[in-house]
Amino acid sequence: MQVTKQRGKRQILAQTVGIIVALWLSGHGWACAQLWMKGGHSAIVWQTVFSTDRRFLLSASGDNTIKVWNADTNSPRFGQLVASVRAHVSGVVSIAESNGLVVSAGGGSDNQIKLWRLQTNGRLNFVRSWRTPLYGVYSVAFVNWLSYGSPKRLIAAGSKGGFLLADPDSNTSLWYPFPWMPGEPLTAVLTIAPAESRNEFSIGTEKGSVYSVYLVRPQSQREPIHYPDVLLLFNYGSRVRAISYDTTNDFLLIGGDSGQLVGWRIVGTPAQVFSVPFSNASGGTGWIHTIHAYRWTSDPAFRQYFVVAGWTWNNGGGRPTLITYSWDTVSNQPPSKCGETVLTDRTGTFLKGSLASINAPYNPYLYAVGSEYRSIEWWQPMGACISDWTMLPSPTIYQSAVRSVAISHDDQLVASGSDQVVHVWDIGGNLVFTRPVSGPLRSVRFSPVERRLIIADNTMLYCLVWTGSTFIISWTSFISLRGGIAFSPTGQRLLAASLSTWYVYNALNGHIIASGTEKVNNVPIPILCCAWAPDDRYFAVGRRDGKIRLYNTTNYTLYRELRVGNYMNPTALAFAVINGRLKLFVGTSTGVLQQWDVVNGSLDWSQPIHSEWISALCVQGDWMVSASTEVPTALKYWIDWMPAGAISQETGTGVRDAFLSFQTYRCGIDEICRYLAYGRQDATLVLTRIGYIPLFLIGGRTTDQQEVDGGERE
Length: 714
Description:
Elements: E1 2-6, E2 11-15, E3 22-25, E4 28-31, E5 36-39, E6 45-50, E7 56-61, E8 65-70, E9 81-86, E10 92-98, E11 101-106, E12 112-118, E13 124-131, E14 137-147, E15 150-159, E16 162-166, E17 173-177, E18 189-194, E19 200-205, E20 209-214, E21 229-235, E22 240-245, E23 251-256, E24 260-265, E25 271-277, E26 286-294, E27 303-314, E28 317-328, E29 336-342, E30 355-359, E31 367-371, E32 376-381, E33 389-392, E34 404-407, E35 413-417, E36 421-426, E37 431-436, E38 443-446, E39 452-456, E40 460-466, E41 471-478, E42 485-487, E43 493-498, E44 501-506, E45 512-517, E46 519-520, E47 523-524, E48 527-532, E49 538-543, E50 547-552, E51 558-563, E52 570-578, E53 581-588, E54 592-597, E55 603-608, E56 614-620, E57 623-628, E58 635-639, E59 642-647, E60 655-660, E61 665-666, E62 672-680, E63 684-693, E64 705-709
């Protein structure tokens, strides 16, 4: 747990998702409630797993994060993002949960297995970690281990060259290496399946071998982990990606690159009992990534079902495919297909890539499917076969960085967008409007006086107005925006920076009032950022050559030119009035924040506040917030122009944009607050609330502020 202290004339209170911030004043403390967050994954979802109590779904992704989702179908917040943590540095390839303990595996160069504790509010606290001696971890699972007469679970982790067994209650572990001859490639354990009622688990390898692993029972409570007995069952013939026990734990179900679903008896005399192709209705074959066995309550006990997720050829390309099989265990017949679906996106277009995972807590309840398309899909079984399943709205909102956010003038709406879509939410987190965008999103901004929303994507500027129930287009303009947009304080004019040219629009009808091109010796200079002064006399554009140019808003002529310094460029601008003088705050590509006096053109001060580029500045009154790609302190804020605090991103990811509410509010008996919305690079939108307690409310005494990051470590 990280604690930072700061002295100041006001006491700061931050209220945010995933962070606990408290004030200790004369022995009294305030804990801040969570607001809300929306998001998704920005890379493939490798695995999904439900918590034992069914309340949460955890998803592991190639974007290095574990995200926690509300999985309670009876909750009004069902499907909403609860927490997100940056768990590894090379993708999270596998995850498992057991009674509140969560284990994750880092792929690639991150050969760590991390243990987390899932809190009742859905947050993950880091407990401890282990490393495998060789490169990469591919799979993790909790496996049964009867220890000293009482049930216990170990962690099994498959890696290159063998597997690791670790005790979650201590730091003890045991590495089991596979036999290896010099010159031969090492065997990688790609998948692990625990048996539910025995000290046993099975593993599948990159070379196609399938093993059963039997754990040796200890003779005393303090006895360490013994080397297990490992038995080779058979060779699948290609890479084994999926292993699962059936519902009786008498059979193993195996799938992989060969596209065959194989059943293998493991009780009594081991033998293969069936092999059926994983193919769609068109005959297209593919490969299997995940298998899940289940029963249906109205069926006889001898009948069970498998749902298999993977990839098949369809319509000229590979498509994510779900197929359900029905199997009569007392007959000599192989399983038969009883339904299939090839997933499409929300517009009906077939998705590319594979389904990486499928998981259900208890049947019939809810399935969660993670895909290469970066999405998670909910499926609710209404019958035994997938033809009777209902697809629920996806909990994943974004699949790339949230590039821009804005709050409406009345502080009742929050706009946010990524490279695919723009959403508008009410302040309670309910979705009120959606609009797709083409290409990279550049910016979203509300008018400071009305519910007029500007959306700028790669090729077009859209102006939308509120009708009372939704937004409709008022006007559009073809423009390749690069340097941002800014409203005049009256909301009647709009500044838009496109490549090296700035335009001033009539914000009500879209007519261009003025324009200008930034050049040096007739060579265009790209514009990186822009801002409009609150006194409506000037606007500023920041250029890639390290200069800022201020223009009069009466005749649009150059007023003044500033230079931020050598080897850095202005990346964010914000005007403010301080002690009656107009100031310009400049965020730079090196993390330096500067304050300039606009009238005399002098630099008041310049100091580094972030270690990476400042992506956004927002000023409302005497409050300011800066956003950066710096990890983890990507947000810092000032109140009354004094440093007030920082919000640490528990995901270890940067922030692309941040916006403060226009008004302040009483958010408690003593606290004065503003809303703060920000978009993160890990495809997440967060609405927070920051505030302070005026000194006159605490007897005029200056005390220490303590900001507590909820953190990763217990």
